[in-house]
TrEMBL record:
Protein name per its UniProtKB record: E3 ubiquitin-protein ligase RNF13
InterPro entries: E3_ligase_sorting_rcpt, PA_dom_sf, PA_domain, Znf_RING, Znf_RING/FYVE/PHD, ZNRF4/RNF13/RNF167_PA
Complex formation: Interacts with ERN1.
Amino acid composition bias (Acidic residues), ranges on this chain: 292-304, 339-357
Function: E3 ubiquitin-protein ligase that regulates cell proliferation. Involved in apoptosis regulation. Mediates ER stress-induced activation of JNK signaling pathway and apoptosis by promoting ERN1 activation and splicing of XBP1 mRNA. Also involved in protein trafficking and localization.
Enzyme type, top EC level: transferase
Stretches that traverse the bilayer: 182-207
Keywords, comma-separated and alphabetical: Endoplasmic reticulum, Endosome, Glycoprotein, Lysosome, Membrane, Metal-binding, Nucleus, Signal, Transferase, Transmembrane, Transmembrane helix, Ubl conjugation pathway, Zinc, Zinc-finger
Gene name tied to this protein: RNF13
């Protein structure tokens, strides 16, 4: 057990080391983009095309200004002569190196160790620009200076007019384009966030679906509460609506609350794995009114309307609603009739009172005349 844990930790450490080295190498393999501006002692300038190396650090945004020195030895495959000492210790020197005889990373590393702040490697017998690269991760991790590659014609012009001995200086100016990691890192962050959100959504949806499916199924303890009838000839049941087989003597039938009957082997998987409703009338199967969980789930599901909701409600519910509506209508009619009767009685009473007053008045007039 301890051995397996130790091997697991060792494997994790190795994976972490490999990923770290690969990431470091990837970031260091990003190109150092620059152009070369050269100035001689008369302050005349000239621009040279170059191709950045695929290793080393990037140039500062304001560029790198320095004095150009020819490498000794020219190929820089071994330690080279350091730059000359000046009174101003902040002076920057850039070395010009010839191609061939060893790898590019070795040349740039020797220039860095000699004290140069940048390296320019030039082609031989060609003006083609070559992308300098390396596969040696250990050497790449040690390189901290930028480097560029130029053609032979550009190198000859630099040697003739713009070296430190000729009173000239050069400036390595970076191109104002965002490096790859400025695009890659935000992209990876956005993709990672999207993946996390998708995973969270899928997990939530899965949990909700499982909970809904489990709530819509009949538990085994609830299934046992449903009555079982052993079929006999002459019973009112004849054919199982699921398997479409006729019932035979001795078949065990599961009787649902809606009075529909099915083979136990047919309807039990339906109720426990698919839906706790009658396959024919879609009425909810609630084995016991005392089962609080079943009542709660049933009431919650009745409020949910889906594509599986039956168009016709159970007869008992329809009858109850019809009876309630009829009772309400009759009570309303009785109340209306009673109010009409009361109004008629009031009108009759008022008319009789008026007639009595007229009769008394006529009698009084006759007596007065007599």
């Amino acid at each position: 057990m301890l051995l397996s844990i130790g091997m697991l930790m060792l494997s994790a450490t190795q994976v972490y080391t490999i990923l770290t080295v690969q990431l470091f190498a990837f970031l260091n393999l990003l190109p150092v983009e620059a152009d070369i501006l050269a100035y001689n002692f008369e302050n005349a300038s000239q621009t040279f095309d170059d191709l950045p190396a695929r290793f080393g650090y990037r140039l500062p945004a304001e560029g790198l200004k320095g004095f150009l020195i020819n490498s000794k030895p020219e190929n820089a495959c071994e330690p080279i002569v350091p730059p000359p000492l000046k009174d101003n210790s902040s002076s920057t020197f850039i070395v010009l190196i010839r191609r061939f005889d060893c790898n590019f990373d070795i040349k740039v590393l020797n220039a860095q160790r000699a004290g140069y702040k940048a390296a320019i490697v030039h082609n031989v017998d060609s003006d083609d620009l070559i992308g300098m690269g390396s596969n040696d991760i250990d050497v790449l991790k040690k390189i901290d200076i930028p480097s560029v590659f130029i053609g032979e014609s550009s190198a000859n012009s630099l040697k003739d007019e713009f070296t430190y001995e000729k009173g000239g200086h050069i400036i390595l100016v970076p191109e104002f384009s965002l490096p790859l990691e400025y695009y890659l890192i935000p992209f990876l962050i956005i993709v990672g966030i999207c993946l996390i959100l998708i995973v969270i959504f899928m997990i939530t949806k899965f949990v909700q679906d499982r909970h809904r499916a489990r709530r819509s199924r009949l538990r085994k303890d609830q299934l046992k509460k449903l009555p079982i009838h052993k079929f006999k000839k002459g019973d009112e049941y004849d054919v199982c609506a699921i398997c479409l087989d006729e019932y035979e003597d001795g078949d065990k039938l599961r009787i649902l609350p809606c009075s529909h009957a099915y083979h136990c082997k047919c309807v039990d998987p339906w109720l426990t794995k698919t839906k706790k409703t009658c396959p024919v009338c879609k009425q909810k199967v609630v084995p016991s009114q005392g089962d609080s969980d079943s009542d709660t789930d049933s009431s919650q599901e009745e409020n949910e309307v889906s594509e599986h909701t039956p168009l016709l409600r159970p007869l008992a519910a329809v009858s109850a609603q019809s009876f309630g509506a009829l009772s309400e209508s009759r009570s309303h009619q009785n109340m209306t009739e009673s109010s009409d009767y009361e109004e008629d009685d009031n009108e009759d009473t008022e008319s009789s009172d008026a007639e009595n007053e007229i009769n008394e008045h006529s009698k009084y007039c006759l007596i007065f005349r007599g």
